[in-house]
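We now fix the convention by which a protein and its fold are recorded. These numbers are not coordinates but entries in a learned vocabulary of local backbone shapes. A record is reproduced here so that you can trace the correspondence yourselves:
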Amino acid sequence: MAASHAPEGWRCIFCDIAQGGESERTKRSAVILTGESMTAFVASHWWPANPGHVLVIPNTHIENIYDFPPALGVDLMAATQRVAIAMKEAYGCDGVSTRQHNEPAGDQDVWHFHQHVFPRWSGDRLYERHAEREPASPHQIARRGSSLREHLT
């Protein structure tokens, strides 16, 4: 089932990152995990009580879950698990949440499949604070990326 929402001529910044490049907001210092099929990096925008969340993406361009090959599910979950464990160790958070969005009505805003991995603390109200998302500084992103990479080895 194809449900494409990418505008004509749209350039996929997540494909650039997966292929070893950068975007305006995501530098190589944000990348914490690279593999044959998946890449993970610290997100460029954070919620106030949940700094340093991570995106896990397939290295091939897949717009959303409708076209996601089931065979990649094992790699996606393995990468997500590694990130979650590193996040618990690096951040000392109380827990971890994952979520994934599809299409505009589902809050997808980058037309490349991606799974969020959020650090969680008791009472952080993550799901009530969607409108409070703000860009993190390149320094903050690099610092979180370095900390997570240390705990992935």
